[in-house]
Structure formats: C-alpha cells, structure tokens
Design a protein that fits this description.
Isopropylmalate Dehydrogenase, 2 domains, single chain, 361 residues, binds magnesium ion, binds 3-isopropylmalic acid, two-stranded antiparallel sheet, 10-stranded mixed sheet
C-alpha cells in the first residue's frame, strides 16, 4: 500500500467547513483508483482559531502544516471578527501562514469552462477560450513592508502608513517561477507593474527584463496595472501568464476570476522553495450563505486537484477530478452562483454527491 500523504486540513470560517467536507469526500473517492492514501489532519485557522484559542494562527497549526505533505485551506474571515485589533484578525492568520511556510508564489489559473460561458457578466465572444494564469508574489510587497501602522504626527494628526518594497532577490525568484510556468503554457509572460509612478515597480520591471535573457523562448511584455485591469475585461484572451506583485495580484486575480463566470470556480496554489504547498480557493468565506448548503464547492475541489498536481505530483488523479467536474457541469447541474435557464439547481452537498458518483467505478 502507498505511504499515506499527510494533508493538513484548515476548514476555517463561513462556508469553509461545508466546501471542505466535499473536497475531502472527493479525495477519498479517487484514492483507491490511483493507489493513494490520505491522512487528513484538521487544524484551526482564522476566526475559528480565534474563537477556540484566542489567536488566528495557533503555533500548533503552523507545526501541523510544516509536518504535512500539503495544506488544504478553505476560507477565513467574517464580520464578527472585523473589529478586533489587526493582529487578532482572521486575515492576519492567513498572512502569517503564507509567510510562515515561505509561500512566495501564488498561482491563480482562470480557465473558462465552456458550459459556464453564459454565467459570466461579459459577452460570450469576449470570454470564450480564456485560459490564463496569474502568478502573484505572496510574501512581500505592501502586504508585508515596513514601516507600517497608524502613527500620530507631530501636529497630532493620525497618519496611516504601509510600505511597498521588493528586493531584487524577491523579484527574481517570483520572476523565475513565472517564466517557468509561461514556458510550459503558451510562452507568453506579461509583467504587471506601476513603473510610471513607483520606484519599486521600476526595479520590478528592470529585473524582469534582465531575467528574460535567460528565457529566450518566452515572450515578455509589460503593462501598467491600470491598463492591465482594463485589458482583462476588454480582451482577456490576449493573456497567457501574468506575473505581478502581491497587491496588484490580489486585485487582478479577482477580475480574472469573474471572467470565468463565478469566483466560486477558482482554485489557487501557493508554493515556496521547498516544504508543503498551500491550496485554497480564491474566494472568501461568504458568511452570508454559510451553513445553508448553498455554497459552490467547485473552487475547493479544484484546489484539491491543484494539490494533487502541484503539491503531490499526481497529475492523473488531478485530471480525473477535473473531468468529473466537467461531466457534472455538462449534465446541467449548477449551484446558485452559476444557475442559468434550463439547468438544475443543486446545493453544496448534492454537488459533492454528483462528483462522487461520477468518480465511482
Ligand atoms: C486573497 C484574499 C486575501 C489576500 C485576504 C483574505 C487576506 O483576498 O487570498 O486574495 O488579500 O491575499
Ligand atoms: Mg483577494
């Protein structure tokens, strides 16, 4: 029998537990077919951890993650924790987890499922065939730069400060990941910055340009972030791989997500130099529909597929999951976020059951 993969499972808040339940069932269902075994180790993060032990990333959770082969995370956050001091907020736990595991490269693929073309708010001809990858720097930039805080000036006025900073080394390492990914895709890399205004972006652009000499098979272009946002909704098919800084990537990946019809369809992978990767949907914890069996579990299930492909090197198992999703969509089943005329509305659990049926021999 295969050695079991040890997977840290961080269900988090809001819809997190219900979509996690579906993803784990799907993993259990495919395991025998690919001779895999999983040991799922639950751990607390975000609001759930704050409520249970008073902090958003308990040391025990980071330890469990470090001792695992991969980390599956659902979603964190909720209005009940929004007024806590910043160091006690759920989001701080997520950022500490990314930093603690050294996960500097965040891969956010946005690929349109043909069955969902009409679920997008954009015209079908604009989005048909969209298949792009946002490579977001995840442990630097304005999310982590110092100084940061709300200070009081000499005149007694409050002043909020964050710092957007990148070292050449930080830019080069995310740049290399992006070039390698672009090389395996269509060979087109668009670096997004704000070099017309920001020095940090000028350095980013200079380093990316210098790196491109090592990757003659990849066509590198540069766009300012405002233009990139516009181009993403105007003509998204021009993009193959996008590489950008932490904050710009946060924003652009939400735009890219909506091209595909619903943010409920987008998975992500966060990788470091070594150690376990973290796999999580791009969407949030959707507290407004939590516990009502209305959530779309597909981004979470696709995150489990990304874990198999990028974290555990089990591409065949990943593909089986992706094909099961396609098959269920082909048969017209939709969660509320994707619902269209002529389709059958299902809840989170039923979507999971349909996937399992599809995956069962
Ligand atoms: C994301 C989220 C997080 C981020 C939040 C929850 C801290 O928006 O993963 O995109 O900004 O990175
Ligand atoms: Mg975001």
């Amino acid at each position: 029998m295969a050695t079991p993969y040890r997977i840290a499972v961080l269900a988090g808040d809001g819809i997190g537990p219900e979509i996690t339940a579906v993803a784990l069932e799907v993993l259990r269902a495919i395991a025998p077919r690919f001779n895999l075994e999983f040991e799922f180790v639950p751990a607390l993060v975000g609001g759930a951890a704050i409520d249970a032990v008073g902090e958003p990333l308990p040391a025990a959770t980071l330890k469990t993650c470090r001792q695992s082969d991969a980390v599956l995370l659902a979603a964190i956050g909720g209005t009940q924790w929004d007024n806590l001091p910043r160091h006690l907020r759920p989001e701080t736990g997520l950022l500490a987890l990314r930093a603690g595991l050294g996960l500097f490269a965040n891969l956010r693929p946005a690929k349109i499922f043909p069955q969902l073309i009409h679920a997008s708010s954009l015209k079908p001809e604009v989005i048909a065939g969209v298949d792009l990858m946002v490579v977001r720097e995840l442990t630097g930039g304005i999310y982590f730069g110092q100084p940061r805080g709300i200070f009081t000036t000499e005149t007694g006025e409050q002043r909020g400060v964050n710092t957007m900073a990148y070292t050449a080394g930080e830019i080069d390492r995310i740049g290399r990941v992006a070039f390698e990914i672009a090389r395996k895709r269509q060979g087109k890399l668009c670096s997004v910055d704000k070099a017309n205004v920001l020095e940090v972006s000028q350095l980013w652009r200079d380093r990316l340009s210098a790196l491109s000499i090592e990757y003659p098979d990849v066509a590198l272009t540069h766009l300012y972030v405002d233009n990139a946002a516009m181009q993403l909704v105007r003509a998204p098919k021009q993009f193959d791989t996008i590489v950008t800084a932490n904050l710009f990537g946060d924003i652009l990946s939400d735009i890219a997500a909506m091209l595909t019809g619903s943010i409920g369809m987008l998975p992500s992978a966060s990788l470091g130099e070594s150690g376990p990767g973290l796999f999580e949907p791009v969407h949030g914890s959707a507290p407004d529909i939590a516990g009502q069996d209305k959530a779309n579990p597909l981004a979470m299930v696709l995150s489990a597929a990304m874990m198999l492909r990028y974290g555990l090197n089990q591409p065949a198992a990943a593909q089986a999951i992706e094909e099961a999703i396609t098959a269920v969509l082909d048969r017209g089943y939709r969660t509320a976020d994707l619902m269209a005329e002529g389709c059958t509305l299902v809840g989170c659990r039923e979507m999971g059951d349909l996937l399992i049926k599809e995956l069962s021999p």
